[in-house]
Design brief:
This protein is of the alpha+beta class. It is built from seven helices and 25 strands. Helices cover about 20% and strands about 30% of the residues.
Length: about 325
């Protein structure tokens, strides 16, 4: 079968890898260079958070874990660092974590286990969570796609997706690919590329998010974390994780300015509030060492993922700032649609 995957971020590469595992030789086309910082897949780490209550997310997470485990040891270590994740706070969203059967710990125990952090109210610990090694995962997925006979073509913008009853024309600056199926995973550019294709996409809101890395005063240990804050106490809920060599990443979830991805300002927002949050909740991070990071969220109105097929076009989009950890599971589903 002739298949083109449009978009070479983690979702596109994971889908191409899953296709290659079943014997296909997909072509991945990506408008930017390898390792670019314009989308949502760059950087060294992403939270591997298993604090979900909804069955469909838990099922997708199980499929994703199978994929991460199948990728094995890469550059000397697994792609998942399972150093644990703590969720805490008085915000209502913390209740969802109870459904996954996490370990509830007293705050006084947390103060001994993770002395660099402070905790609020109920604390839930998942020892099987941690981070995905994002940049290493992208390199390994590309390597496996190419090793199986597929291709990854960087610097190849797609101008149009034109399906008909017999196939799909994927129109690029380098020529047109006539294929049986096009799988489109272009993140922030989904609506620009497919908005007029009549595929029934939900509204997709693109924002620029700017967490920051903070230098630790002590070596740790550091878990990944979610802080579900009381309404009005902070600009938004907080997430973060250790990134070796860069510090501890801390960010407000889903609070960035809405942007056009082709005119992205790369402008940090809420940095004063983020430094004050770190000053209050992380005694062993230096709040004056913030190094902002920029990435995009593409969010649906209910934060549910878009993963569907219309005719000969499969779309994966709207991963709402929480998709990276699911990528091998999303790829496994997308290649079967």
């Amino acid at each position: 079968m002739r298949i083109v995957v449009v978009g070479g971020g983690v979702m596109g590469l994971a889908t191409a890898w899953q296709l290659a595992r079943r014997g296909e030789q997909p072509i991945v086309v990506e408008r930017f260079a390898r390792g670019h910082h314009e989308g949502a897949s760059h950087g060294e780490t992403r939270n591997f958070n298993n604090a979900y209550a909804e069955e469909h997310y838990l099922d997708l997470l199980t499929r994703a874990r199978e994929g991460w485990d199948a990728l094995g040891v890469v550059e000397g270590e697994p792609l998942l660092r399972r150093h644990g994740l703590v969720s805490h706070g008085s915000g209502a969203a913390l209740g969802s974590a109870h459904a996954v059967g996490l370990e509830e710990i007293a705050r006084r125990l947390d103060a001994r286990r993770w002395p660099g952090m402070r905790f609020e109210d109920t604390v839930l610990h998942s020892p099987d969570a941690g981070v995905a090694r994002a940049a290493a995962a992208l390199r390994e997925l590309e390597r496996r796609v190419v090793a199986a006979g597929g291709e990854v073509r960087w610097h190849t913008p797609v101008r149009a997706i034109e399906p008909d009853s017999d196939g799909v024309d994927v129109v690029t600056d380098a020529g047109t690919h006539r294929v049986d199926v096009a799988i489109v995973t272009v993140g922030a550019w989904t609506e620009k590329l497919l908005g007029g294709a009549g595929l029934g996409l939900p509204p997709l809101r693109v924002t620029e998010e700017t967490p920051a890395h903070f230098a630790p005063r002590m070596p740790g240990p550091w878990p990944s974390f979610n802080h579900f804050v009381a309404p009005g106490s902070q600009p938004a809920n907080v997430y973060g994780m250790p990134t070796p060599g860069e510090g501890v990443k801390v960010g407000f979830h889903g609070i960035g300015d809405e942007i056009d991805p082709d005119a992205r300002p790369h402008r940090p927002v809420f940095q004063r509030e983020l430094r004050e949050y770190v000053r209050q909740w992380f005694p062993d991070l230096d709040p004056d060492t913030a190094v902002p990071i920029s990435c995009t969220y593409t969010t649906t109105p209910d934060e549910a993922f878009v993963l569907d097929r219309v005719g000969r076009v499969v779309v994966g989009a709207g991963f709402s700032g929480q998709g990276f950890k699911f990528a091998p599971g999303v790829g496994a589903r997308a290649q079967r649609l």
